[in-house]
Design a protein that fits this description.
With 227 residues, the protein is mostly helical. The protein has 9 helices and no strands. It binds 2-acetamido-2-deoxy-beta-D-glucopyranose.
Length: 227
């Protein structure tokens, strides 16, 4: 990982330090280890951490997209071909803040869970396929690895939040299936690189949406809309 990435990670760890002291476990951040009785995290703290994480993931996704664009997409006209079709499109997520405001917080929480779950599989494969990219810059791979890990962490955090907001309610297991692996492996270079481009474009878009939804939900649920 490059130094910028580490310093960001370092500042994240600093922010989460109280949790470190309490739970004595770095690996389980930002979630308490199972069964740690004195490690009940307040809803407010869970939201604070989720927002920091989602912002971090969006930052990484944007940087990864820019990196890929600079290294592989120049002069290929991908931007004009980029159809706004993502595997998560079927989840019909609100496009902007106004639309999101109209949605009941329970549904919005479920939507976030669904989008995060829908990225588990493609992010896993993205790491493997970026490894196989010719002359891939280190920054690209390190970001792919970091995004995959942080996405799983955010999903765990969101499950905790849903568990506190609606205790006892069985959370949804809905997600969109991704079937884009063959397109990341196709022999034709132009087609293959465009598949990467499109996937990273979608990742940047979805991570931005999640970041926005979370900020909105934090305001509504934790601060009773006084923010
Ligand atoms: C990501 O965060 C770093 C550190 O705060 C910042 O310098 C960089 O501009 C951000 N990148 C994007 C694409 O927003």
């Amino acid at each position: 990982m490059d130094s910028k990435g580490w310093s960001l990670k370092g500042s994240l760890l600093l922010l989460l330090l109280p949790d470190l002291l309490l739970c004595k476990s770095v690996a389980s951040l930002p979630i308490c280890p199972r069964g740690a009785a004195n490690c009940q995290v307040s809803l407010r703290d869970l939201f604070e951490r989720a927002v920091i994480l989602s912002h971090y993931i969006h930052n990484l996704s944007s940087e990864m997209f820019n990196e890929f664009d600079k290294r592989y997409a120049q002069g290929r006209g991908f931007i004009t071909k980029a159809i706004n079709s993502c595997h998560t499109s079927s989840l019909s997520t609100p496009e902007d803040k106004e639309q999101a405001q109209q949605i009941h917080h329970e549904d919005l929480l479920n939507l976030i869970l669904s989008v995060l779950r829908s990225w588990n599989d493609p992010l896993y494969h993205l790491v493997t396929e970026v490894r196989g990219l010719q002359e891939a810059p280190d920054a690209l791979l390190s970001r792919a690895i970091e995004i995959e890990e942080q996405n799983r962490r955010l999903l765990e955090g969101m499950e905790k939040i849903v568990g506190q907001v609606h205790p006892g309610v069985r959370e949804n297991e809905v997600y969109s299936v991704w079937s884009g692996l063959p397109s990341l492996q196709v022999a034709d270079e132009d087609t293959r690189l465009f598949a990467f481009y499109n996937l990273l474009h979608c990742l940047r878009r979805d991570s931005h949406k999640i970041d926005n939804y979370l900020k909105l939900l934090k305001c509504r649920i934790v601060y009773d809309s006084n923010c």
